[in-house]
Specification:
heterodimer, A: 286 residues, Glutaconate Coenzyme A-transferase, ten-stranded mixed beta sheet, globular, B: 258 residues, alpha/beta
């Protein structure tokens, strides 16, 4: 059963040095507040898993939390490269970063296989491309019925999944809606999970029968962090802060300005710092 | 008389024209997104635009900065999970056109968005393939939109991220593919289509005011020209007006989001 904890308690309890962790959210509901707490607690030697490593993984990589990245697209969407990832791969700063690189199809299938309890995912992919040459986890099998050659990758089974959702209820169930990405699959594939939410309500109330719900017994820790997905967004709560994504390019380009920004905005702050984004946007929406 | 316009505007407009009203288009961020929405706002109002975040038949009023901006979900007919998007809709063969770009392209329209230099010790680590490896083989056909330069139009790719026509000829068929691959390459200078035999991308249309010398000087291989190259019709006043209004709305929206 899920338990409501403080963010510091939740990260301390769920995530350990050396873990593989998937912080998911496909442009929407990216768990930035939780990522910042991981940095504050100085987690080391993590294997970071994420289809689209963007700002939050750039920050974790730049602060030396990660030994390895499993991913399919690492950039600042619509802006360009993420510079801390580049610096780690090109120059080994602040430490070398091993890469396991896939396509989106492969990652999405691998999460689904993990949630389904299968050892691997099978799909029609990687045809005529070079990733299979550099990633030994890309293999092929032959369909026993048709003889078609198909791609196979190992299922993703992270030690920990970290996501940001819209709501939890008093019973500890979790609700998300909108662009739901691979969060349900990531939580069900992981051994442990941590969910930050915009609000905790008595009852979810009227909703579509197909709204994504993670029952309380599939989640370990719930933390209420309003604004906790900023600068990504929470459907119906606040919008994506596109100006912030653009500003990140200059903040992160060089090492010293990056470190100074992280000190002022992450190391010396707490989860409460995110509330301003939730409030600000709500006021603007009224 | 046509108004004055920028090469980028000609490129986006030429790409938009290639899309048909009945297409189901898998849209990437940046220039593909601008072209696809321009098509929707001009000659192809019923086109189905799909973004890999799971939004199907989306009609954004402003261009998204990411593939998953809230605007896409708010204006979509339906939004599905990412595994469903890649399994049922892309792999399932429901997409007629995929729209791609890249950092490097070769004469057979293979693309590199992974690394400049060797993979293990890259000079530049690029974002990577994302959806492209499977978009390139699962969509009915592929349109590519890219600005031309010798740095990006190269004799040999540093890395093959997504397949175009491979080594040319029947290479795709030999790999078991039944989809067409890149059927159009739209640049800021010209429009290319694959040669029927060799599948090498061949100039079929040159934008107004552009010379063959300019194209040759911006391309890292000896460019082939079709037997009867035509001039790309210049942007109409309506195309320019709709594109500029879309870009202005987008700039306002992204600035205000701070």
């Amino acid at each position: 059963m899920s338990r409501v904890l403080s963010l510091a308690e939740a990260v301390e309890e769920v995530l350990r040095d050396g873990d593989s962790v998937a912080m998911e959210g496909f442009a929407h509901l990216i768990p930035h507040a939780a990522g910042h707490e991981v940095i504050r607690q100085g987690r080391k030697h993590l294997t970071l898993i994420r289809m689209t490593p963007d700002l939050i993984y750039d920050q974790l990589i730049g602060m030396g939390c990660a030994d390895k990245l499993v991913f399919s697209w690492g950039g600042n969407p619509g802006v360009g490269s993420i510079h801390r990832l580049r610096d780690a791969v090109e120059n080994g700063w602040p430490q070398p970063l091993a890469l396991e690189e896939h396509s989106h199809s492969a990652m999405a299938n691998a999460y689904e296989a993990g949630a389904a309890g299968l050892p691997c995912a099978i799909f029609r992919g990687y045809i005529g491309v070079e990733l299979a040459r550099v990633n030994p986890n890309i293999k092929h099998i032959t369909c026993p019925f048709t003889g078609e050659r198909l791609a196979a990758v190992p299922a993703l089974r992270p030690d920990v999944a970290v996501i940001h959702a819209l709501k939890a209820d008093r019973a500890g169930n979790v609700l998300l809606d909108g662009i739901v990405g691979v969060q349900k699959q990531a939580v069900l594939a992981a051994k442990r999970s941590l969910v930050t939410v915009e609000e905790i309500v008595d009852d979810f109330g009227p909703r579509s029968a197909n709204t994504v719900i993670l029952p309380s017994w599939t989640v370990d820790a719930i933390v209420c962090v309003p604004g906790g997905a900023h600068p990504s967004y929470a459907h119906g709560y606040y919008k994506r802060d596109n100006a912030y994504y653009k500003a990140w390019d200059a903040i992160s380009r060089e090492r010293d300005p990056f470190l100074a920004w992280m000190k002022a905005n992450v190391l010396e702050k707490g989860p409460d710092a995110f509330a301003v984004y939730a409030r600000q946007s709500r006021m603007a929406a009224e | 008389m046509a108004e004055s316009y920028k090469p980028n505007e000609m490129m986006t407009i030429a790409a938009a024209r290639a899309l048909r009203n009945e297409d189901v288009c898998f849209v990437g961020i940046g220039m593909p997104s601008a072209a696809a929405n321009l098509a929707r706002l001009t000659h192809a109002p019923d086109i189905t635009l799909i973004y890999e975040s799971g939004t199907i038949a989306t009609k954004p009023d402003v261009l998204p900065l990411s593939i998953g901006d809230g605007e896409l979900c708010d204006t979509a007919l339906t939004t599905v999970s990412v595994p469903e998007m890649f399994r049922y809709w892309l792999q399932g063969g429901r997409i007629s056109v995929g729209f791609l770009g890249g950092a490097q392209i070769d004469r057979f329209a293979n693309l590199n968005t992974t690394v400049v230099g060797p993979y293990d010790k890259p000079k530049v680590r690029l974002p990577g393939g994302g959806g492209a490896p499977e978009i390139a083989t699962s969509c009915g056909e592929i349109f590519i939109i890219m600005s031309q330069s010798k740095r990006s139009f190269v004799g040999k790719l540093d890395f093959v991220t997504s397949l175009g026509h491979g080594e040319g000829g029947d290479h795709r068929e030999r790999l078991g593919l039944t989809t067409k691959g890149p059927t159009k390459l739209i640049t800021d200078l010209a429009v290319y289509e694959p040669d029927a035999e060799t599948r090498e991308m061949t100039v079929v249309s040159i934008h107004p005011g552009v010379t063959r010398e300019q194209i040759d000087a911006s391309t890292g291989w000896p460019v082939r020209y079709a037997a009867n190259v035509v001039e790309t019709p210049p942007p109409t006043a309506q195309e320019l007006e709709v594109l500029r209004a879309l870009n202005a709305r987008t700039a306002r929206a992204h600035g205000e989001a701070a």
